[in-house]
Structures are given as structure tokens and as C-alpha cells.
TrEMBL record, chains A, B:
Location in the cell: Cytoplasm, Perinuclear region; Cytoplasmic vesicle, Autophagosome membrane; Endoplasmic reticulum membrane; Endoplasmic reticulum-Golgi intermediate compartment membrane
Organism name: Kryptolebias marmoratus (Mangrove killifish)
Record domain STING ligand-binding: where: 1-178
Protein name: Stimulator of interferon genes protein
Recorded family membership: Belongs to the STING family.
Coiled-coil region(s): none
Length: 179, 179
């Protein structure tokens, strides 16, 4: 099953690399943005990872919900990776409540694979794969000491998607109840 | 199986994005490096992707073989991806024969997964997964019009690994026979 490999790849090739550095990146960001406005009042210093059950993803979050607006990027991380010198890893900060927010990248792969005939699965199996990805990633992260308390997985069920502020409401629910 | 998903993810999340832009990046690189030396005489304008069957990867190619040396990076590509504003994709140029060269990153995932008890496979299955990754990626790329003639997959069998210049020789063999 595809989702198992994608969950491991997302952890080993991304979260395990960037989450231990996130706290320092946010501190550097706050220091350089002090003058413009006191930041991060109620925000959370975790990486908020959106996992829509229907794998429906846009590349600009403000296109999904007008209550979400892009603020700025955290400082870049450059890491030598498999022959690419100084590969760049970056995160974007959004104004919902000041937080680093992005979709889980492998969902885009699952969405695109479900549209390719030769990839081997269609739309009905896709939801199962997204759910399996979410559960496998949760299990992996639960065992990871270096990523503990540095992330928040936000599973988005699509029953209220017709609400134009469905996304910001779901994020705020997570920020307020669990931090 | 894991390799199938990783091959699709490598294509949909990377090769399909960067290969169509590679020709322009190399042209921009040559224009800005004209003064230092006439570049790309015998080199190839494809992305050379190394696929070692034993999934043995280092992050700096000159550590593997002293005949390979890092020259410079191509200009960065910035693309908005799943909420990350201006995600950076870059390639490194090495002096073997002036070419863009990197390992296939998913092999690092396969290597690391084979060391994690809960990931579900060990070293003997890993070789099979690498071979399956290579074959699946070949099939996907064979069908891809936008990536045609823009890449070269270099499968590295490990029988001659004790030769300190095994890697540069394998690359030169590919460059000379197939371009
Ligand atoms: N949001 C986000 N920002 C990042 O910088 C990032 N880097 C990786 N990932 C996701 O983590 C996982 C593991 O990454 P890996 O590099 O092993 O595989 C990557 C890698 O093999 C290749 N690839 C993608 N971007 C690059 C890149 N910039 N340079 C080289 N290879 C790349 O194509 C695979 C799929 O990439 P994405 O489809 O972007 O999702 C990846 C993947 O789900 C990221 N996700």
C-alpha cells in the first residue's frame, strides 16, 4: 500500500529534518519582525500539517479561506542532501493566529496518482489511503522523541466544506483546544 | 509496496516540476559563468540521477570519488507548493564532464526504512525495492512527454565498489555511450 511508504518518507525525508529546527527558526523570525508588530501572542510554535480526507489541496491557503492570509516565510534551512548542495527547506507563516501552516505534501501525490490510470488506484481507494497515511504518520510521530510537541496533525473531514471559512474554523478549533 | 508509491511521488512531486525547466536553467548558468570558463563542452544537459542498487548514498559526491568535484548550483526555481510560498528547487553541477548530478532521494527513504523495525522490511528486501523503484520510474518517465530526453537514470550495481573511482567511471560510461 502506497500510504505506508509515503508516511515514512514524509517523516524520514522532511519532518525529522525540519521539526527539531522549527523552534529556533520561529525565534529568529520573531526577533527580525519585532518592529512591525508583536508577534505570536496566541499563536502556536508548532508546524500545523493539514490532512484533508478528500486530498483536495490548493497551493495558496488564502485561496481556500479569506480569513487566512500569508504573512511571511520563516528563515530558510539549507541542508546538503544526496548530492544537492544546500537544498532549501522553508515554512510559511499565516495569519489565522500566527502559525506555520501547510498541507502534507504526500497528499498531492495521492491525489495525482488517483488521476493516473497506470498508478493503480482511483478515487474511492484514495480516501482509504489518506486515512492510512494519517494513522501511520501519527504512529511514527508518537514514537519520535525529536519531533515531540513540535507538530500538530489536523485531519479535515469534508462534511462542512461548503462553508467558506471551514478551514480557518478547523485550524482555530485545533489551536484553542489542544495547545 | 513501498517503491511504487515512492517512484510516483518522485515523478509527480519533483521530476515533472523541474525537468521541463532544466534546459533554461542550464542556459542561464552558462551565460553567467561564461567569463570563468567555457562550460559544457562535452557535458550533457540532462539531469543525471544515480540509483545505487545497495541504496548506499552520501550527501557530498566528492566524498565518494575524488574525480568528482562540486562546481556550483544552477539558478534556484521557486514554486508555491501546498501552502509553502516560494518553495525552492535547485540542482548542483559537478565536474566529471560538467553535468547536473544527484542521487534519487527516495533511496535514502528506503535505506532508512530498512533500519527501522516498525517500517516493515529489512536489508534483503531493500534491493528488491530499489530495483522496483528503478523499473517503475523508468516506466513512468517513458510515458512522460514533458520529461523526454531531459534525464538519465544511472543504475549502479555494486560489484566494483572497491574501486575508488567506480562512481566517476560509471557516470562517464553513461555520458559517452548514450548521449
Ligand atoms: N512541504 C514540503 N517542503 C519541503 O521542502 C519538502 N521536502 C520534502 N518534502 C516531502 O517529504 C517527503 C520526503 O521527501 P524526499 O525529499 O525524500 O522525496 C522527494 C524527493 O525525492 C524529490 N524532491 C522533491 N523536492 C526536491 C528537491 N528540492 N530537491 C531534490 N529532490 C526533491 O521528490 C520527492 C517528493 O517530494 P514532495 O512531493 O515535495 O514531498 C516530499 C515527500 O513526501 C517536503 N515537503
Amino acid at each position: 500500500n502506497v500510504a505506508h511508504g509515503l508516511a515514512w518518507s514524509f517523516y524520514l525525508g522532511y519532518l525529522q529534518l525540519v521539526l527539531p529546527r522549527l523552534e529556533d527558526s520561529i525565534a529568529a523570525f520573531c526577533a527580525s519582525h519585532q518592529a512591525t508588530r508583536p508577534l505570536w501572542g496566541r499563536g502556536s510554535r508548532k508546524l500545523h500539517i493539514l490532512i484533508p480526507l478528500n486530498a483536495n489541496i490548493s497551493h495558496k491557503l488564502e485561496d481556500e479561506d479569506s480569513n487566512i492570509c500569508f504573512y511571511d516565510n520563516l528563515p530558510n534551512n539549507e541542508i546538503d542532501r544526496v548530492g544537492v548542495r544546500g537544498r532549501v527547506y522553508k515554512h510559511s507563516i499565516y495569519r489565522v493566529h500566527d502559525c506555520a501552516l501547510e498541507y502534507a505534501t504526500p497528499l498531492l501525490t495521492l491525489y495525482r496518482m488517483s488521476q493516473e490510470r497506470s498508478a493503480g488506484f482511483g478515487e474511492p481507494e484514495r480516501r482509504q489511503q489518506v486515512l492510512l497515511f494519517y494513522r501511520t504518520l501519527q504512529d511514527i510521530l508518537d514514537q519520535s522523541l525529536e519531533c515531540r510537541n513540535r507538530y500538530k496533525l489536523i485531519l479535515l473531514r469534508d462534511e462542512r466544506e461548503d462553508d467558506p471559512h471551514f478551514l480557518s474554523k478547523a485550524i482555530l478549533r485545533h489551536l484553542e483546544h489542544q495547545d
